[in-house]
Hints:
By secondary structure, the protein is of the alpha+beta class.
Amino acid sequence: xxxxxxxxxxxxxxxxxxAIDAALREALDEAEARKLAQVEIxxxxxxxxLRKRVxxxxxxxxxxxxxxxxxxxPGNHGHLLVHFRWRRGQ
Length: 90
């Protein structure tokens, strides 16, 4: 893990909706506390159900306000990147 990016692997908890939400919330909390540039979410390629769940969580209004944008990892379809933009003094 670099000092500018946090990685969250959801494979071990892919069947537990509460654990997924908690892991995502904790990752966003840590990224904000440490002023990280990105959170990399590993949701896997599979059927796409976990990826859709993660995107639904990230698109909630109260969550959406916390980050700048989401992109797909160009090198791996099973990864999502949540980008943060910090202003000086924040």
